[in-house]
Specification:
The chain is an alpha/beta fold. It has helices spanning about 15-20, 25-45, 75-85, 135-155, 165-180, 225-235, 255-265, 310-330; strands spanning about 50-55, 55-60, 65-70, 90-95, 120, 125-130, 155-160, 185-190, 195-200, 220, 240-245, 270-275, 280-285, 295-300. The chain has one domain (about 5-330): 3-Layer(aba) Sandwich (Rossmann fold), CATH 3.40.50. The protein is globular and about 70 Å long. The structure holds ligand 9Z3. Belongs to the PPC synthetase family.
């Protein structure tokens, strides 16, 4: 592989990306576990959803000290995974290491730390810790714990980690190839916030970039648009694929969502604006039988009515409904 940045190809197709960037060391091991998980649920006749969640990083050095990050706490993915489990799906939860996870998200160290449930008891000679769940906390904790235990006992939740955009791209391709046996029973819920730009390893500095030279100029390459091969090659047009579009200018949501559907030919783009994403999203999908026509549907909740209501409950209910219809429609009809 060339290490000369000037002669290195910089316009990546998905094909040239995978031919030149190295897979993460844990890939084979991760794929074997996914294969076992998928086999078990295919045999049980269950639908499987791949939920991606959290932001990808872009390292600036091979011995990485600095990196760019994409915004995402992982709330959307972790919350949605719980509702998919509730709807009877087996869930592959592919998430950014240390971002929120299903069930434990309710007791995140920053918003609801588990240590607050512990009290110190002292007697004459020693101190010990006691778990103290208040009356108010008891019912919600029991509900989360019951759902968590039942998902784990039944082996319905499989978790995978990524950190960099490179990890994400390799994992997504490998997992999609394993899910292909499910045909139309596979659902993709691509909520991870994936970088649009990256630094190919051939252009990275090996060691920490030194500050002596003044300002830092980095030219990044575009991450290949992998939704295209995901839809047409890796899943052979069989899976039900939902991608998310994040914007900060709300007027761009619908045009960008339509553009993505026209380019990649998948089933749904869910548009969300950074500031209102917890209360409303817009579903954009191709109009059945009509070229270049789209249907848009808002899904909204009113937090002033019910503080415990999560928009993901309605998003997942709508997708489960659409996925069922997708399964019932044969590819040729
Ligand atoms: C999303 O739009 C997610 O809904 C959020 C969730 C990242 C906003 P949180 O994790 O946030 O609950 O804090 N994800 C997709 C973002 C993305 O990178 N989309 C790409 C784009 O917009 C296309 S796949 O171009």
């Amino acid at each position: 592989m060339s290490t000369d940045a000037t002669t290195f190809e910089s316009n990546f197709s998905a094909e040239s990306y995978y031919a030149t960037q190295s897979p993460p060391p844990s890939l084979e091991h991760d794929v074997r576990n996914v294969r076992d998980f998928v086999r078990k649920h295919v045999n049980a006749g269950r639908n499987v959803v791949l939920v991606t969640s959290g932001g990808t990083t872009v390292p600036l050095e091979l011995n990485v000290v600095r990196f760019l990050d994409n915004f995402s706490a992982g709330t959307r993915g972790a919350t949605s995974a719980e509702y998919f489990l509730k709807a009877g799906y087996a869930v592959i939860f592919m998430h950014r290491q240390f971002s929120l996870q299903p069930f434990s998200r309710h007791y995140s160290h920053s918003t609801h730390p588990f240590l607050d449930f512990l009290e110190i008891e002292k007697d004459d000679n020693h101190s010990s810790a006691r778990i103290n769940v208040t009356e108010k906390e008891r019912a919600p904790l029991l509900e989360v714990l019951t759902a968590y235990k039942s998902a784990h006992t039944a082996g319905l939740l499989h978790t995978l980690n990524f950190v960099t955009v490179n990890d994400y791209l390799w994992l997504l391709r490998a997992v999609s190839q394993e899910l292909a046996v499910l045909g139309r029973r596979a659902l993709y819920y691509l909520a991870a916030a994936v970088s649009d730009f990256f630094l190919p390893r051939q252009k990275m500095s090996e060691h920490k970039i030194q500050s002596g030279k003044g300002s830092l100029h980095i030219e990044m390459d575009q991450v290949p648009k992998i939704l295209k091969p995901l839809v047409s090659e890796w899943t052979q047009g069989q899976a039900f694929i939902v991608s998310f579009k994040l914007e900060t200018d709300p007027s761009l949501l619908v045009p960008k969502a339509r553009q993505a559907l026209a380019r990649y030919g998948h089933q749904v783009v869910i548009g969300n604006d950074l500031h209102t994403r917890k209360h409303q999203v817009i579903f954009v999908s191709p109009s059945p039988g009509l070229d270049n026509e789209y249907v848009e549907t808002w899904v909204r909740i009113d937090p002033s009515q019910d503080l415990t209501k999560e928009v993901e409950e309605d998003i997942v209910a709508e997708l489960v409904h659409r996925h069922r219809a997708w399964i019932e429609t044969s590819p040729t009809s």
